[in-house]
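Example (one chain per record):
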Amino acid sequence: MEASFSKELQALSDLIELLAAQRDEAAVKLTQALEEVADLKAQLKKTQEELHQKTLDVEFLTLSHKLAETPQSLAEARATVRRLKAGVDKAIALLRDDATI
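Predicted structure:
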């Protein structure tokens, strides 16, 4: 009976070791997956920012072409749009500063 109990105890011990190893492996995989998710989120944010900037560039070029009839007036229109954008950006910044007071 003691030998049978010892065998069962050894089998349970082996099973516990196996489960502990599987748990440790799962923990490592989880950590790797969480790191990958964080990396992908950072990539997504960067890509979204780049897309936003490209969209603004397209809008800027579209607007400047609509305002201009000649290459010279195109340059003037782009300069005007840049000044207007800078003014709007400054106004937004001022509004944000007022909102935090």
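Caption: The mean pLDDT is 88.
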